[in-house]
Design brief:
Length: 198
C-alpha cells in the first residue's frame, strides 16, 4: 500500500525546502572548489539516467477522460521543489499508449521546451510529456540529482552566452560533466541531513 503524501504538513515541506536550499549552496561551493581540484570528471550520463516522455493522442478520449495519473508538462512547474498536482491527467490506457513510463516519487524533471530550464521533483508517481526530461541517479540520492541538474542548467545558460535559451536537447545534456568527488561529498552530507543533523 502506497504511503499517502503529506501535502498538508507544513513542517514536512519546510524541512525539505531547507534541505534542498542547503544542498544547493553546498553544491555551488563544491563545484567551485572542484574546478581547482583536478578530480575525475564524469559525463552526466555516467551519474544519472536521462529519460524521456511522450503524450498519448489527444483526440482519443479513452486516453484522457476520467484519467487519474498526473501528467507533468512545463506548465506544471511552480516555485515549489516538489510537484504534487498537474493540470492534465491520463488513464492507464493512455499511459500504455505513450512514450512515457510512470515515474516514481522523487524523480527529477527538467523542462526542455516552452518554460525552459526549470527543475522539479515528482511528489507522487506521474507521467510526463515530450517537452521534459526525467533523471534517476546511478546510485545517487535523488536530492543530489536535483542539485546536479540545477547546476547543469546553469552551465548550459552560461554556454549560451546571452543567446536565446530556446530548448535543451539530449546532446546538450550528454556533454555536461560533474566532478566525482562533488557527488561523494554531497552524498555524505545528504545522509547526515537525513539523520537529523547538519
Amino acid at each position: 500500500m502506497q504511503r499517502p503524501i503529506r501535502t498538508d504538513n507544513k513542517r514536512y515541506k519546510k524541512t525539505h525546502s531547507l534541505i534542498n536550499d542547503y544542498l544547493a549552496n553546498l553544491l555551488d561551493t563544491a563545484f567551485a572548489n572542484a574546478v581547482k581540484s583536478g578530480s575525475k570528471e564524469l559525463r552526466l550520463p555516467e551519474a544519472v539516467d536521462i529519460l524521456s516522455g511522450g503524450t498519448p493522442k489527444t483526440k482519443n478520449v479513452e486516453y484522457w477522460e476520467d484519467g487519474k495519473i498526473p501528467f507533468f508538462t512545463p506548465r506544471d512547474v511552480t516555485n515549489s521543489v516538489y510537484t504534487l498536482t498537474t493540470e492534465k491527467h491520463i488513464t492507464d490506457v493512455g499511459l500504455n499508449n505513450c512514450n512515457s513510463e510512470l515515474y516514481p516519487v522523487d524523480t527529477v524533471f527538467l523542462t526542455a521546451r516552452g518554460t525552459v530550464g526549470k527543475v522539479a521533483i515528482a511528489g507522487r508517481p506521474m507521467a510526463m510529456n515530450q517537452s521534459c526530461f526525467a533523471f534517476r541517479g546511478n546510485g545517487i540520492p535523488q536530492s543530489i540529482v536535483f542539485q546536479i541538474i540545477k547546476n547543469a542548467v546553469k552551465s548550459l545558460r552560461a554556454k549560451a552566452n546571452g543567446a536565446t535559451f530556446a530548448a535543451i536537447n539530449t546532446r546538450d545534456l550528454k556533454i555536461e560533466t560533474v566532478k566525482s568527488h562533488v557527488i561523494r561529498r554531497l552524498h555524505i552530507r545528504a545522509k547526515t541531513l537525513q539523520n537529523g543533523s547538519i
